[in-house]
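A further point concerns the way the authors explain their paired sequence and structure data. Showing the layout once, in full, would remove most of the difficulty. For illustration, here is how one protein appears when written out as sequence plus C-alpha cells:
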Amino acid sequence: MTGPIVFHGHHDASLSLYLDGLGDAVEIHPPGTPARDMERLSRAGLVVHVRGFERAIRSGLDAELACRGIPRAWFTDDDLTALRGEQPGFGFYTEGRLRRFAAGMAALIGTTPALCARLGAFHDRVL
C-alpha cells in the first residue's frame, strides 16, 4: 500500500469514537462532488467506504476506484439489510446488492461480534 488509508464518510461523533485514537494513521474524507472525491481518493492506498454505499455505487465512484486498482473496504456499525425493513431510506440495501458490493471489497469491517457474524455471510474477510 503506497498511499494513506482514507475513510470516505462524514466525520461525525459516531465515527470519531472508532477512529480518533488512530491519529495520523488514517484520514477521513467527507463525501463531496464526484470529481473532488476521485481526486482525493485516487491517491489512497486503501479506501474504506463508511456505512451507506448507495452514493458510491450510483455515482460510479466505487467502480472507478476498482478500475484504478485502488483496494476498497467497507466499514459499518449497522446491519443495513435489517434497517431496510425497519426504516425508510434503506430500500437500496438488499442482500443481493450487499453481496455484489462486498465481492469487490478487500474486507468488511464491523463493530460488534454479532454484526461481524452477519457480515460473514457476505465476505470471507471480516474485521
Remarks:
- The first strand starts at residue 5 and ends at 8.
- The longest helix spans residues 95-103.
- Strands lie at 5-8, 26-29, 46-50, 72-75, 107-109.
- The mean pLDDT is 93.
